[in-house]
Amino acid sequence: MVQSSAQDVDQYLAEAPEARREALTRLRALCREELTGFREVMAYGMPAYEREGKSEIAFADQKQYISFYLLRTDVRDAFADRLSSHDMGKGCLRFRQPQKIDFELVRDLLRATAATPGTPC
């Protein structure tokens, strides 16, 4: 899918490959549960969650993996130990197999993001 032209997250998920749809739907559910006060939007062709007009979290179905974008350096730094064993770019946590997504880690990252405002990178 890489960059979708979906108008909303429901359409985005409907267009996702069946093999990844369940994991993407679960990521969305976690975001909606944990990111109270955030607005769900489509940004750069992917679901994003913004506070005060700035995206702090996003996720996407990429060609080779599912990406989870953690756009707050303070949260990334606080979880450096737990993130070190994962495939992590500058702000992108990559899950190559949907069944191996660490949803507990994702939930903890979402909670930390929601707990305090910060500056996205």
TrEMBL record:
InterPro entries the record matches: YdhG-like
One protein family per Pfam: DUF1801
SUPFAM superfamilies, sorted: YdhG-like
Annotated ranges, domain YdhG-like: 20-112
Name used for this protein in its record: DUF1801 domain-containing protein
Organism: Streptomyces pakalii
